[in-house]
Input
Amino acid sequence: MATTTTLKAPARTGISDQLASAAVTALIDEVRLSGKPGLVGPDGSRGHTDMDIHLMELSARTLHSTFRTLAGHGMQLDVGQELRDTLGRVGRHGEAQMMEVTGGVNTHRGAIWNLGLTVTATAGLLATGAPVTVDAVTTRAGRIASHQDSALDLGLRPGARARRKYRVGGAVSEAAGGFPHVRAIVDAVRSARAGGFSREDAHLIGLLTSMSTLDDTCLLHRGGLRALETVTAASSRILGETLRHGYLDRTQLAHLDHRMTTRGLSPGGSADLLACALFLTTKDD
Output
């Protein structure tokens, strides 16, 4: 197995370390959430035959240095092409470290992009002394993502193929648009908690909020357009009934989970965005 090099993180490592730790915690909190349809959790690996919760947690902890480096650069560089190119370079290095640890299993490639942008944007706001709000972070992240990586990888990855085949924006458009689904998840989680839902149920409601509308390329890659339509419709129905009746029907959620697991469907895009939302709301509970 090849050995990867270590990139030197810029100064201000205290804040960078704190942000990196918060990002890793968000990833671990996401994977430890039980009851997620089609996703790896403490209650099973679902349709993911090549990973489990232990591998996911190992992968998350491995990314601490990547998030720390991104935060450091986010504090030093203004939004622009240099920061975007740096994010791409550091992200690819982090992906190589992840793949080395997992034996080639793609556990967190999407999270490196989505959560990496969120960490970078947060660090930039802290460096300027600007208020760190959900809107401010997602807006700044969108500005960073709107620049195209000068060293763009033209390799045919699953997400890229799905975006072209089904003409959807995927993670690239979600980020460049200022993470509208992350904002929606945050609003849904906070509203659910204010309405008396438990922390776990509120997080599941946040996940369903994304699953009900996101053009998730993970679902498109695994099952095509019909699978995406099935999952979004079912998620929307469960979410609507949950909000109307004031409780989360775990039986319906388990039924959706069974349908997705038997077909090998995974809403990985929504899981990544939930992790971003958990990072942004880390002080809520």
Q: What stands out?
A: The chain has 13 helices and no strands. The mean pLDDT is 91. Residues 165 and 220 are 9 Å apart (CA to CA).
